[in-house]
Design brief:
Radius of gyration: 23 Å
Low-confidence stretches: none
Distance between the termini: 17 Å
Helix content: 25-40%
CATH architecture of the largest domain: 3-Layer(aba) Sandwich
Number of strands: 18
CATH superfamily of the largest domain: Glycogen Phosphorylase B
Number of helices: 21
CATH class of the largest domain: Alpha Beta
Structural class: alpha/beta
Bound molecules: adenosine-5'-diphosphate, alpha-D-glucopyranose
Mean pLDDT: 97
Shape: globular
Strand order of the largest sheet: 3-4-5-2-1-6-7-11-12
Number of domains: 2
Strand content: 15-25%
Amino acid sequence: MPPVKVLSVVSEIYPLIKTGGLADVAGALPGALGPEGVEVRSLVPGYPRVKAGIGKAEVVHRFDHLFGGPARLLAGKAAGLDLFVIDAPHLYDRSGGPYAGEDGKDFADNAQRYAALGVVASGIGLGLVPAFVPDVVHAHDWQAGLAPAYLHYSGGRRPGTVITIHNIAFQGQFPRQLMPALGLPAHAFAIDGVEYYGMIGYLKAGLQLSDRITTVSPGYAAEILLPEAGMGLDGLLNVRRSVLHGILNGLDEAVWNPASDPLIPRPFDARALKARAANKTALQVRLGLDPDPAALLFGVVSRLSWQKGLDLLAESLGALLDMGAQLAMLGSGDPYLAERFSSAARALPGRIGVELGYDEALAHLIQAGSDALLVPSRFEPCGLTQLSALRYGALPVVARVGGLADTVVDINEMARAAGVGTGIQFSPVTVPALQGALRRTGELWRDPPAWRRAQRNAMATDVSWRGPAAQYARLYRDLIAERAG
Ligand code: ADP
Ligand code: GLC
């Protein structure tokens, strides 16, 4: 089979710049697609950290005007990734995160910053860089949503287009007055174009105008067809459901491998689970918890936001403590939630340990050292922390939604009797149901052989990118064949 060339268009990419799982996926999928005969280059904005990361780069194109200033398109490599980087200091050379400044407020010109991403992606799609003319342009989330739109309205011979929804809650809506500045034809502002409730919708545009739509789990693909989870886009998705696919995320096994992880004190595998205990002690010490091997230690690694349902956990701390359990939490985000957990930790230091902020090493230690990992999300397109938990033998305790429901096998009574199951699921996403799940986890903990069995099942789960990469490769090839007619 001839190799397939794909341009991945994305606003964050691990290890250069990351706010969440999107970066992990963007950073790992290209490598996983190589063995499938798919050659990927990723187009990313030239934030300071990206430019510092690529080092020596070649200028492959110059733009006189790209939304308010001159810009260059760079080609280079970083961390094994083949990158195109948009070097446009007036758009991307800022302190803070990719989307917001240090004050936490979104940049006022995000419409232009991500329209630029779309314009350049479309340019590359149409042959701007003769050395790499993609067969498929694959856009991720709203930030890349205009890429398929620019290609659609280009009128030229264009590559196939795919958009992946990582989170339908973020849609990128901007005032219609920007239409002339975006350089899209006026007729694009229509229900079958980029118009969305009187505004310009970047995600909506991508969903409307791409050849294929994917999302990051089959469960979420089904959920977003319903008004409860579609967040206003369920109508459009129902019309386009024949091109909507759910493909699970994988885990970057080079980054997340308990047997060789340099970020944990004691590497271990399923055959040497005893070694895991040293990581539990290290985690307890790190977060000021009583170093008690017998206490059931729950871990959390999460953004602190409504999506993640951690307010339900805050309401359940009494139940958790009544069981004699401990909590090790790493989180960043919502200051109200942060303060709720910090004050609980101040009140009960040996039992609740909380660290606020972003800390990769601690994230790994929590996976390696906690007994169970809590993910009580209200919705979860896929979720990656439950995948690393499986791999590290921390039993995932998850809400039965989206990708969480698809990746964790509930240890119900029958599963337990049969010796199958990899974690605990609960539903609905309420305080009583979460507390029920905490209690079920406690019961399993009091049966050490059953617990070890579950750990081994969890660690044997295939959470690699191999299966998902094969599905993406097939999707690209089907699309190319369809367009070749
Ligand atoms: P989302 O993208 O919705 O935040 P995912 O589970 O898909 O959720 O991905 C989250 C990623 O971010 C995982 O790689 C997780 O380990 C990491 N992560 C989340 N919070 C933190 C944190 N406070 N410090 C370090 N890593 C974190
Ligand atoms: C989003 C979702 C998360 C998913 C990640 C990567 O951030 O919230 O569930 O795992 O994207 O696809």
